[in-house]
Write a structure and sequence with these properties.
With about 325 residues, this protein is α/β, with parallel strands linked by helices. It is about 30% helix and about 20% strand. The chain is built from eleven helices and ten strands. A five-stranded mixed sheet has the order 8-7-9-6-10, sandwiched between helices. A three-stranded parallel sheet has the order 4-1-5. Strands 2-3 form a two-stranded antiparallel sheet. A hairpin with a 5-residue loop joins strand 2 and strand 3.
């Protein structure tokens, strides 16, 4: 969901392990961030770790957040199983569960607030949110506020605390793959994707490579669920999203009868919790809390609950995306 950015360095990673999870019918997770600008000192400070003598992650929290007792989380809550509304209307998924665990460590409530993916980073800059947690891919472009298409500076950028790894998959209607196995096979066909995601960027990049004028017709939507509806109705030949999300759709949509994943996942990269540049105290508090739940085993319990062990990390890195 939500500008899960361009991943240009890794491809076909952890395919066998994650593929086994999909065959087993487990629910997998995936996703997506935004722009950046800022001096190098902000990123350097954010990467230094907790100060010597700090007794707990909660001690690192900024005073205003401590006094309010709440961290406002911007999230596109329409990206199951990462974050979504369950049958009772409650926010559920991997990110909300991790947020609850982090909140216990920090002594505050992680309050998830719904927003479209491509507005989350601007929401951070406008201080509507304290953090953004929405399957957002950590990339250098987002860290530095660079538009992935124009390569121009468009914002201040963000810092990330990385907490998961996922690749991107293509899916089609079940039993009707139309010969699509790779991104190159989409030339001359129509794909439906969520706007400003890694999948959206990949589709635009691949379309430029298509020969003979057979470009990829790209339809972009506010949410991944809208894109799925378009494919289900026959209005598009294929869709693409982070592997966990695609696998979850394959497993659950129409009782498992609507979609199938085709080909291998590509562009494996970290998901990161996004924090506005300059908020180094909050970045370090989130990092320390994430490290604590990893060390305690709570992180592994949550990841196992959602069947996404293949994407688990063993440490919380700041700005580890490339």
């Amino acid at each position: 969901m939500t500008a899960r950015s361009t991943r240009r360095t890794a491809a076909k990673t952890r395919i066998a392990a994650v593929g086994a999870l999909a065959v087993a019918g487990t629910m997998l997770l995936t996703a997506c961030g935004d722009q950046t600008k800022n001096n190098d000192s902000g990123s350097t400070k954010a990467s230094t770790g907790a100060s010597a003598g700090t007794s707990s992650p909660a001690d690192l929290l900024p005073a205003d957040i401590k006094s309010k007792g709440v961290i406002r989380v911007g999230s596109d809550i329409a990206y199951p199983p990462v974050e979504f509304k369950d049958k009772s209307g409650k926010t559920a998924g991997i990110d909300p569960d991790l947020g609850a665990a982090l909140g216990k460590v920090l002594g505050v409530e992680f309050k998830f607030e719904n927003g479209t993916f491509d507005t989350l980073v601007t929401g951070l800059r406008a201080k509507r949110y304290d953090i953004a947690m929405s399957a957002m891919t950590d990339s250098k472009e987002r860290q530095e506020g660079i538009d992935p298409e124009t390569k121009k500076k468009v914002g201040e950028g963000v810092d990330f605390v990385d907490y998961f790894t996922a690749g991107v998959s293509i899916y089609t209607k079940k039993g009707d793959d139309q010969g699509i196995k790779t991104w190159a096979d989409l030339c001359g066909k129509k794909i439906a994707v969520q706007r400003n995601t890694v999948s959206h960027d990949l589709a635009k990049d691949e379309s430029k490579k298509c020969a003979g004028g057979k470009k990829i017709a790209i339809e972009s939507y506010d949410t991944d669920l809208e894109a799925q509806t378009r494919i289900r109705s026959g209005g598009a030949d294929a869709g693409s999203s982070d592997f966990p999300v695609a696998a979850y759709a394959v497993k659950t949509s129409g009782g498992g009868k609507d979609f199938q994943i085709v080909g291998d996942q590509v562009e494996a990269a970290p998901y990161g919790i996004a924090i506005a540049k300059g908020n180094d105290q909050l970045t370090q508090a989130i990092k320390a809390a994430m490290e604590e739940i990893i060390k305690s085993g709570e992180y592994d319990k949550i990841i196992a609950k959602w069947g996404v062990e293949a994407g688990a990390v063993t440490e919380a890195k700041v700005n580890g995306g490339s």
